[in-house]
Amino acid sequence: MKITNTLTLRYLKANKKRSLLTLLCIMVSVIMMSCVGIAFSSGKAYYKSYIEKTRGDYHYRIVDNRQEIIDLIKDDSQVDEYYFSCTTQLDYQDSQLYMKSGDSLYFQKKGLYDYIIDGRLPVNKYEIVITPEFLKMNHIDKKIGDQITFDNQQTYTIVGFMNSYQSQDFMEYIYQAFSYIDLTQDYTMYIKDKDVSKNIFQHVQNLNEKIQNMESTTSSKYYIPYNSSYLAVQNIFEEGLTAGYTDVYHMIYIMIGIISFVSVMIIYQAFHLSTTDRIQYLGMLSSVGATPKQKKCSVYFEGFILSIIAIPFGILCSFIGLNIAFSFANQMKILKDLNLSIHTQISPLYLCLVIIGSFLITFIALYIPARRISKISVMDALTKSDEVKVKKKRLQLNRFLSKFLNVSWQLSIKNYKRQGIKSRVIIISLMLSMIIFVSMTSFGKNFINTVKKESGIHDYDISVSDVEMKNRQDVIDILNNSQYDNDYYLRGLEFVNVDINPDYLTYESPKTIGIYIQCIDDQRFNQLCEDNGIQPSNDLALTYNQSLILSENETEISSVYKKMDRNFIQDMYISYLDDETEKEKKLDIQNFQDIQMIETSDEYNIMNPYELTFIVSTDYFEKEFGSTNIEIYIQTQQHEQLNQELESYGLSSYDETSANQERIEFMTIVEIFVYGFVTIMLIFTLMNILNMMSASIEKRKKEFAMFMSIGMSVNDMKKMLWKESSIYGIKSFVYSLPFCIIIEFLLYNLSFNTIPFRPSWIAYLISFIVMMIVMILTFKLGLNCFRKQNIIETLKDDM
User: Fold this and answer.
1) Angle formed by the axes of helices 243-277 and 661-699, to 10°?
2) CA-wise closest residue to 621 among 538, 565, 544
3) Residue 502 per-residue DSSP state
4) pLDDT, tens digit, for every residue of 178-203?
């Protein structure tokens, strides 16, 4: 066995090019698996710090004003810590300011000490810290120690001056004053449990029951909200409300599975080529007494040696590459403003799994080549007679094809058939390359969509609100005549009561319910109808089999309709309270003449998880709800200039892109890493194609020499190889298409998507074109190298 291992090492040193290619295949496999773990662990640690800086490190919160609830939490042995805050709006003559009140622990958690210019933070509810700008703007001459009285007759002693503080929570208020919290007024209590596990949910449920049973509780249902993002980043998922986070985990599991499968196949291809090169060498060893077990162990030893080198280098390259990427990401404004940075890190458990998994993948890939080598006979190995075993009948073309195909096409088809198992190996290799590229592209697209949904990033740059429906054309004319390029769509929304036929629904429902009627502009309404094969009309309503969350018990219904037609809605009206009689009255709304079902789409913000939604034309909406205000959403590259122009017309416009700049930068970080990973996979697949095709040309040198010896020109050979490449490319494309669609559909179902499933046809086309270009170039380069060789020498059967 020792002699066999020594000879294997000698072979690896002698065939450096083949050994290097096999080593690179294992390395890239390790790099991909390591990158997933490092990027996920690093991103998770960063996101946890980000949540702590913005939303807070609490597990759940209670909004109330009762002392007995504070006592309840104070005496609870399961609570680790708690702190308080509240927001107050104060008026001073014609000016307003937002004041943030909290206790000392809240001030510490939020780092409010950093905002103090002079003085100190408040220590009781009668003290205040205020911005000098507010005092200057209102011509107030006050210094530390003076008192200030607001319009509500509240008097505070100024104990310090501060810079303006913008909160990082979802409200994003700008605060111009701090004070100590008054717990006799409304407060928000942030609570953190000792046991950081799913037991938090049971604990909150118990607290909920205790508060509900208090005599002072008047509401029929008391609600304690969770800090879902902070819990989710610690792998504690709130049922039904953290779908986006679990989707990310599911997609990562699928990608690790795909990477493992693809790695097995590609490493198998590399070792298959290596063992094919060694087949005569191993045949000679068999002739001098090497047993099948020794030959098999020789192959496994080769894999072990290459893995020992490739795995550490692969992990090291992953750390270096991601560290460089993170160093660029850390220069982004969002990270600097929050004093955060992303550091490369990986859990020891995942690192061990990468090492063990890489060895396992390599040895699984080695099983077939090792078994094949151990079973081959001495004569077959020495003469290579097992490489191509094709019966004469298989090479014959049917008469129909023979009449219509020229000689080069016939030779190409026969060459493809003559390759036997080799042609199937090449087809599988090309299929894997296409499946990898399409899967990674789809993964990137779905992953980014999921993160965008969770981050609250919109698909528009500017929103214009409070536009009266009947005056919408004035705003549209401004947009059409603007010097800044833009695209826009409008949305009107009205809540109405309807009497329905409950038999149309998949869940138990009362006869009278509330629905949303939503309008979009005519162009997009007509496009929706056209996409779904529906004839548009003014009295037509479109709906979709949406998911619905029942507000009574927060139960989610995946699809709400059994069927749909105009008889679903029997009466439609708006209820209002008459000012004179103080009785409820009804304002009848014209019913729809037709209702059609469409595929789900949130392209125009058509989504409401708590109510049924019906989409109508602008003509219908204007006729029934002409005085209702609508919103116009605008997409433009010049959002700042266009927003200023709209504001100059007195419109209520809001620059969403500028307001969400930090989130957009965060998405840029995500996109860089996702598409960086896709690029690594693309390089992996291209290397696989080059490896396979170059090896194929190397093995066919004698075949090419034979063609040239009987008078075939170089141009004829190029034509033949081009057509042969087309056969491989078309077959690979056709065979891989169903696998790509299935994988895409699985990733689509695991992502937070409401738009209809559509395969990434552009990715399919790109992968096919790239595959053909690489094959043709490889054949061309191989042929150019072959032309430099002597035909007679090539035809010799050397060992």
Assistant:
1) 20
2) 538
3) G
4) 999 998 888 999 999 999 888 999 99
